[in-house]
UniProtKB/TrEMBL annotation:
<feature type="transmembrane region" description="Helical">
    <location>
        <begin position="363"/>
        <end position="387"/>
    </location>
</feature>
<keyword id="KW-0813">Transport</keyword>
<dbReference type="InterPro" id="IPR050095">
    <property type="entry name" value="ECF_ABC_transporter_ATP-bd"/>
</dbReference>
<feature type="transmembrane region" description="Helical">
    <location>
        <begin position="252"/>
        <end position="271"/>
    </location>
</feature>
<keyword id="KW-0067">ATP-binding</keyword>
<keyword id="KW-0812">Transmembrane</keyword>
<feature type="transmembrane region" description="Helical">
    <location>
        <begin position="155"/>
        <end position="176"/>
    </location>
</feature>
<keyword id="KW-1133">Transmembrane helix</keyword>
<feature type="transmembrane region" description="Helical">
    <location>
        <begin position="225"/>
        <end position="246"/>
    </location>
</feature>
<dbReference type="InterPro" id="IPR003439">
    <property type="entry name" value="ABC_transporter-like_ATP-bd"/>
</dbReference>
<keyword id="KW-0547">Nucleotide-binding</keyword>
<protein>
    <submittedName>
        <fullName>ATP-binding cassette domain-containing protein</fullName>
    </submittedName>
</protein>
<feature type="domain" description="ABC transporter">
    <location>
        <begin position="428"/>
        <end position="646"/>
    </location>
</feature>
<feature type="transmembrane region" description="Helical">
    <location>
        <begin position="116"/>
        <end position="143"/>
    </location>
</feature>
<dbReference type="Pfam" id="PF00005">
    <property type="entry name" value="ABC_tran"/>
</dbReference>
<dbReference type="InterPro" id="IPR027417">
    <property type="entry name" value="P-loop_NTPase"/>
</dbReference>
<keyword id="KW-0472">Membrane</keyword>
Amino acid sequence: MKDKLTYYIQQSGSEFDWHSYQYIKEHAIDKLLSEVNPLFNDPLFSVSLHRGQLADLRHVPDIFLIKTDEWHFVRRADDNYLLDDKTPVKAAELAQHEVIYLEEVPKKLASRDFMLVLLSFFPRVNALLLLAAPFALIPAFYANLFNTRMIYNDSAYTLVFLTVCFSVLWSGEFFLKKWVKFQHIRQVDQKAIKIEKYLFALMPFSRLPDNLIKMRQIESNRRGIWDNGASLIADIAIFFIAYLALAAVLGLASVYLLVFYLVMGVILVWARYRNYKAYLEHEAAQQEMLTERLSICGNGQQLRFYDFESSFSQFEGASKAIFLADKKISHVNFNWDELVRYSSFLASFSLFIVMFYQAKIDVAIFSVLIALLVLNGRISAAVTAIVSKGFQLLIARYHLQQSVEPFLDSITGNCYTRGVSLDEIDAIELKNTNILVGETPLLQNVNLTLRKGETYGITGGIGAGKSTLVKTLVSLNDAYQGSILFNRLYEANNLDRHVFADCVGYLDMNSQFIRGSLFHNFYIRGVRDKDTIIRLVRSVFPNINLDYEFLYKTDIHHIPMSSGQRRKLQLYMTITPNKSLLVLDEALTNLSLEEIMAVRKYIAMTAPRAILLIVTHDRTLINMMPNIIKVDQGTVTLAKTATVKIS
């Protein structure tokens, strides 16, 4: 059992105290789990192992342990599962068995704590680059041997032999750096997945309108920190190794060169940081341009119906801003490149000055001139690289901070704790509830009870607050005062985050498919049975051959479909037997009355006990509702009509 548990924890990717784990002995399951759970030390998630029956789990993880004749590791593969990563089994065959599964809840981190976690993820394998630093001396030794020995030989064979020997040394450096680089990439990928998982877990609870931009900035800048950090280690090591070699030859005279390098470093730092604002403006202009392009591309088909000149004028403004920023950066980079070239020339001048006076003491110093020039060049290049990489590191850190802080501050709701779990939503009760937009009351003193098995039509004028009302019910809007009780006992903000994934189906006019296959889009919404999925897809696409490629491989965005087909498919994905609250916010648009009746019949068959909320402006549809909720002038009233039976 412990072997399987070890493999499971390894596959989960969670941070774990493996040293303490080796002292834990085999026990009964509950005792073993109680001893193992405190060993999880993941900086981003609170992690714990739990035990239960697979059939009782509303939220089935993609990997878990299951006990049949013995314990097995299980991994989901499309609509099947793999036992110990080799034996395929159907979900129905596992339903009644005991399982051990991992539960992760995001930790609440301030932006500073998140930055510290990100820095702690920097791959320590890069410390081995210090071992590669002495290889920087190879060109100097090679040049010195040629200058003092080989140039006087009658044959070039010795030169060729030494070249081969030094090439072998160089290959050693190459393979060391290559191994470190591959390990760096592997570890960075593992840590990047953890960060993306953390941000993904928080995303549904963020109310920022520009999360796409924020996520893109976090992704690019955290990679910039890790990659530049590795290069910085190598450059600093090369600087010290090369300078020590220089000092071994020049003695105390090398101190004058050290002073020059420090002065050169200060000048380069000044040159870089005096243009710091230009880099920030360039990054801001890039983000603004990206926002413009997203807006334009998102409305691509509509552009032909807009006035071209007027439409292009704002885009032109963003384009000119990025062009101006590009021009500034081009000037900055040109000046930087020329300064680097001139500083390299001055480094040679400084070396010659030192050697000029050193030669008066010992003329033999000229015998190592070429070696000293090579070392001096490496030191000069290292100083330039340290300043440049350090600057890029600080720029990346600044932009990362600017993206992380507002994102984490925007997180609302019960995201960071394990809340109350519900198997089913029987009733929702609003008591003296004021629903706000910002700090302004939109709906006041709302008293409303919604019961299972009932259908409610929600109507009202544009901007009256219909959508805000239903969003508040499903915790998409937490700006309210008063009480919203689920099952007459539990406050909405105390519910576990999985309650809404397991029990609530929500569809509005802005709902989109997730990138991936048809099966994936059904699966993430809780529709797991392959035969059911095929039946529903065939009802939407009666003339398409439903092969494996179409169902499991083709991206859903690449499947041609009409607006009505798109809406019907989304409805079938949303309406599932396990949903006890269904919210359709203008989701029946693009459907005929006949199709709407078919959808209602499907709901009555599939989720007859669900609370059904239909937001619509369609008077014909409203008149068919047994219960009508009117939202008007800041008030919410419930009117009962004759029950309409759907059969």
